[in-house]
């Protein structure tokens, strides 16, 4: 019965392909890590596959799925004087966002770092510190996307961005919203 309800909810998506890729990359990375631990001890193979899936998920979420499913996109660039500039893009507020797409997007966006965090805790408890390196990367990537999309959503709502106009904010705006750690980590990042 629960599978039928979830299938029905997924069929209500306005963009099932984008939603499928969004969920697929995340699930594939998690399942590859979990089943890789069970069926093989080949760290290098699992590390490479999970890293490729995490990178694909990060890029897809940031540039494609976020834009299609909830009308948001973000990126970071360096200004001429070397400061880190966070750029937020929001769709026209008149655009109707599909409720199913938005629920799947936000629920998955916030639950993924929590799941990876629990896997990190498990790796620590089992003293599998080599696997912890992979899980920490997964936590950082998924948390970065979650935090940036949250700020993008807040920034778009607070400033009433319309018609795909760009909202530029410097590191000080990120810090005002509580992103000082990310600003420090990615301060010199220009991509």
TrEMBL record:
- Main location per the UniProt record: Golgi
Q: How does it sit in the membrane?
A: Multi-pass membrane protein
Domain of life per record: Eukaryota
| Keyword Transmembrane helix attributed | yes
TM ranges = 12-35, 41-59, 104-124, 130-149
Q: Does Transmembrane show up as a keyword for this record?
A: yes
| Pfam families assigned | DUF846 (PF05832)
Its annotated function is as follows: Golgi membrane protein involved in vesicular trafficking.
Return the protein name.
Golgi apparatus membrane protein TVP23
Identify the species of origin: Myxozyma melibiosi
**Organism ancestry:** Eukaryota, Fungi, Dikarya, Ascomycota, Saccharomycotina
């Amino acid at each position: 019965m629960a599978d039928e309800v979830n299938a029905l909810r997924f069929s209500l998506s306005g963009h099932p392909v984008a939603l499928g890729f969004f969920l697929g990359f995340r699930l594939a990375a998690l399942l590859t890590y979990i089943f890789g631990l069970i069926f093989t001890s080949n760290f290098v193979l699992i590390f490479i596959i999970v890293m490729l899936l995490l990178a694909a998920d990060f890029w897809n979420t940031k540039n494609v799925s976020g834009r299609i499913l909830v009308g948001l996109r973000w990126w970071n660039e360096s200004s001429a004087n070397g400061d880190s500039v966070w750029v937020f893009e929001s769709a026209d507020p008149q655009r109707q966002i599909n409720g199913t797409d938005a629920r799947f997007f936000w629920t998955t966006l916030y639950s993924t770092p929590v799941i990876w965090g629990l896997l990190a805790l498990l790796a620590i408890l089992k003293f599998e510190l080599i696997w912890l390196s992979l899980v920490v990367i997964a936590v950082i990537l998924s948390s970065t996307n979650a935090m940036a999309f949250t700020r993008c959503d807040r920034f778009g709502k607070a400033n009433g961005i319309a018609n795909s106009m760009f909202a530029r904010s410097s590191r000080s705006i990120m810090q005002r919203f509580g992103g000082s750690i990310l600003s420090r980590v990615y301060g010199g990042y220009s991509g």
